[in-house]
TrEMBL record:
InterPro entries assigned to the protein according to its UniProt record, in alphabetical order: Tyr_Pase-like_PTPLA (IPR007482)
Entry-linked Pfam families: PTPLA (PF04387)
Enzyme Commission (EC) number: 4.2.1.134
Keyword set includes Heme: no
Entry similarity comment: Belongs to the very long-chain fatty acids dehydratase HACD family.
Name of protein: Very-long-chain (3R)-3-hydroxyacyl-CoA dehydratase
Bilayer-crossing regions: 12-31, 142-164, 184-203
GO BP annotations, alphabetical order: fatty acid elongation; sphingolipid biosynthetic process; very long-chain fatty acid biosynthetic process
């Protein structure tokens, strides 16, 4: 059992620092591109590390499912699911969205949030410590970064809507061999609607997590 616990810590430490490195590249290239070329070029500069870092987060759903971490899947799934959706079903699928200024606010919000989060968990798994300043950042910066990130996600989905409708990409029309119909435009509208209950739920969940984490830290101080 002790050997399994050590292997788990090594795996989680490696995972967190590798994804941290991915997000560090995203932030670096986003800032550099904003300084030198403008917001229109940000997506092209960060596309590969963004896709890598965001897609790697799918593993966190399985981490929760198999008990490697204590985070509930009910909280992990909607947050990661919405980001994967924006990364692949919006930005990758509809190039028309990539030059929007909203991409910059999205990338900056995501990357700063994730650099804090992955360094927090990376420090804990690799060294068994979490510096107090990092813990405060982990449980406080969401007050600003979560609304900016969510607003950017919604903004990009809205930007994509006309192109989703006109292109009919990923739509499945009847008749067909599977006898199934799928309209990506209405699926996109449904996804947008899911932000209405989902965003307040996640925000209040994080407020609750902050209160628990900081209270626990205060007791152990």
């Amino acid at each position: 059992m002790a050997g399994l616990a050590i292997l788990k810590r090594i795996y989680l430490a490696v995972y967190n620092w590798v994804v941290f490195a991915g997000w560090l590249q995203v932030l670096y290239w986003a800032v550099q591109t904003l300084r030198t070329s403008g917001y229109e070029a940000v997506y092209a500069a960060v596309e590969r590390p963004l896709q890598f870092a965001q897609t790697a987060a799918i593993l966190e759903i399985f981490h929760g499912m198999f008990g490697l971490v204590r985070s509930p899947v009910s909280a992990t799934l909607p947050q990661i699911g919405s980001r994967i959706y924006v990364t692949w079903a919006i930005l990758w699928s509809f190039p028309e969205t990539r030059t929007s200024p909203i991409v910059s606010s999205l990338v900056l919000s995501w990357s700063i949030t994730e650099l804090i989060r992955y360094s927090f968990f990376g420090m804990r798994e690799a060294f068994g410590i979490t510096p107090s300043f990092l813990q405060w950042l982990r449980y406080s910066t969401f007050y600003i970064l979560y609304p900016t990130g969510i607003s950017s996600e919604v903004g990009l989905i809205l930007t994509a809507l006309p192109y989703v409708k006109v292109s009919e990409k990923y739509c499945l029309r009847m008749p067909n061999r599977l006898n199934i119909a799928f309209d990506n435009y209405f699926a996109t509208l449904f996804t947008l609607a899911s932000y209405i209950p989902g965003s307040p739920y996640m925000y209040t969940y994080m407020i609750g997590q902050r209160a628990k984490a900081l209270a626990k830290a205060k007791k152990s101080a």
